[in-house]
Amino acid sequence: MTDPGTDSGFNKPDRKKKMAVPGPEQIRSYAKRLGWKRTIARTLYVGGNQILDISIFDCFRLHGEDISDPLTRNPRGYDCGFLSPAKAGYYAAQLDADMAASVHEAMRRGDEAYAILDQGRLASIGLYASAETPILNDLLVRFETPARYMYRGFTRPEYRGQRLHALGILRAGRELFDQGVPHLVTVVEHTNYPALISVRRMGWRPCGVLYRVGRGHRCRLGRSRPAVEMGMELLRRGAADRD
Q1: What integer pLDDT is reported at residue 17 of this predicted model?
Q2: SS3 state of residue 210
Q3: Contact 199, 10 (CB under 8 A)
Q4: pLDDT at 240 over 80
Q5: In terms of CATH, what superfamily is 9-242?
Q6: For residue 135, which phi and psi values (nearest 5 degrees)?
Q7: Does residue 20 surpass a pLDDT of 80?
Q8: For residue 150, what pLDDT is reported?
Q9: Whether this model's pTM surpasses 0.90
Q10: Please, how many CA atoms are within 13 Å of residue 51, restricted to the half-sphere of its CB?
Q11: How high is the pLDDT of residue 19?
């Protein structure tokens, strides 16, 4: 969940690294697209990460009645559907190395991949989990089943601008809802404003906040009351393994 049609990199299973401080040109570009208020908030977030490990994620859930119908239309007639593990592995070869590794890891965990195909060529792909899922190399997101957790979406560069990210998520959601899944959940980094705009446009509704703040091993994990009510939380991977 990020800028429509791009990789949802906030949810990559990488160890959290110190955020790069943006240069003047990057700041001006961001302000032009999203305004100075959001630019200042993002700058403070990045600045805080130079001192502490700070991760703040907004939680969202999607029910069938929340779906934005216009974004489910497929005027170009792409083929859409969940892939078998073998097919997911086949199409992973059409992705960059980082996203391909995520697809292979997802299949090993038993997650599902939903793809949009253009005459057999991969245009867009998203991943869906039914159990706790890595969000950073040292953290997991836990949620209440039988919900599904949507994470990592990628659209090939030549297909961007067609809102295939939204098309894939909403159509995948409808298929899962028809199978009895009550709702989808996801998280978005708190200052990833393009992604926040995108999820709200699709119909996702806020359901709390998850956070990590501290330094090294002295980090506190927490969540807001709505996140507690939704059964969503962050876990350290070692602690989760002991549950």
Answers
A1: 52
A2: strand
A3: no
A4: no
A5: Gcn5-related N-acetyltransferase (GNAT) (3.40.630.30)
A6: -115, -35
A7: no
A8: 98
A9: no
A10: 4
A11: 65
Domain ranges of the chain: 9-242
Token pair, residue 198, equals 């995108």
3-state secondary structure of 127: strand
Tell me, what amino acid is at 124? S
DSSP E strands in 45-179: the ranges are 53-62, 79-83, 112-118, 121-129, 133-136, 139-142, 148-155
Where do we find the tokens 């779906």?
67
Mean pLDDT of 101-113: 97
Question: Measuring CA to CA, how many Å separate 74 from each of 58, 80, 120, 168?
Answer: 29, 9, 16, 10
Q: Taking a C-beta distance cutoff of 8 angstroms, is the pair 123, 117 a contact? A: yes
| pLDDT confidence band for 128 (50 / 70 / 90) | very high
C-alpha dihedral over 86, 87, 89, 94, to 10 degrees? 160
Identify the bridge partners of residue 115 per DSSP, sorted by sequence position.
81, 125
Nearest to 163 by CA among 134, 113, 171, 233: 171
